C-alpha cells in the first residue's frame, strides 16, 4: 500500500486531532534504517531529537526519537514562513 497516500492521510489526521486537543508536540520512534518513514516524518515537520540505543528487541537496532512541535514558541517562530 505504499505510495497511495494512506500514511500522509493518517499523519494529517493525527496532527489535526492533536492540534485541536491543544497538544504541545507529537513524538514517535522510528528505526534508523527506515529511510522512507524518516523522510515522510521530516516532510511533515518532525525533527530528530535523540537516538534510543538498542530500542528494538528483535535485532537491537537503534531508533530515532522524532518530535513535531504543535504549539507554543516553536510554532510562533515559524508562523511567518
List the helices and strands and how they pair.
Blueprint: H1 6-20, E1 25-31, H2 35-43, E2 47-52, E3 63-69, H3 73-78
Q: Approximately how much helix is present in the residues?
A: 25-40%
Chain-averaged pLDDT: 90
- Element string (H = helix, E = strand): HEHEEH
Number of discrete helical segments: 3
Main β-sheet, in a few words?
3 strands, antiparallel
Structural class: alpha+beta
Order of strands across the widest beta sheet? 1-3-2
Shape: globular
Q: Which stretches of 5+ consecutive residues score pLDDT under 50?
A: none
Q: Count the E strands.
A: 3
Radius of gyration: 14 Å
Percent of residues in β-strands? 15-25%
Cα end-to-end separation = 33 Å
Written account of the structure:
This protein has a 3-stranded antiparallel sheet, covered by helices on one side. It contains 3 helices and 3 strands. The radius of gyration is 14 Å and the shape is globular. The model has no long low-confidence stretch (mean pLDDT 90). The protein has helices spanning 6-20, 35-43, 73-78; strands at residues 25-31, 47-52, 63-69. It is an alpha+beta fold.
Summarize this, please?
Helices cover 37% and strands 25% of the residues.
What would the keywords be for this entry?
81 residues; alpha+beta; globular; 3 helices
Amino acid at each position: 500500500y505504499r505510495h497511495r497516500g494512506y500514511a500522509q492521510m493518517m499523519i494529517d489526521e493525527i496532527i489535526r486531532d492533536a492540534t485541536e486537543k491543544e497538544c504541545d508536540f507529537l513524538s514517535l520512534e522510528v528505526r534508523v534504517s527506515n529511510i522512507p518513514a524518516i523522510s515522510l516524518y521530516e516532510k511533515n515537520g518532525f525533527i530528530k531529537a535523540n537516538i534510543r540505543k538498542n530500542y528494538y528487541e528483535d535485532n537491537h537496532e537503534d531508533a530515532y526519537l522524532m518530535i513535531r512541535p504543535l504549539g507554543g514558541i516553536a510554532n510562533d517562530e515559524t508562523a511567518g514562513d
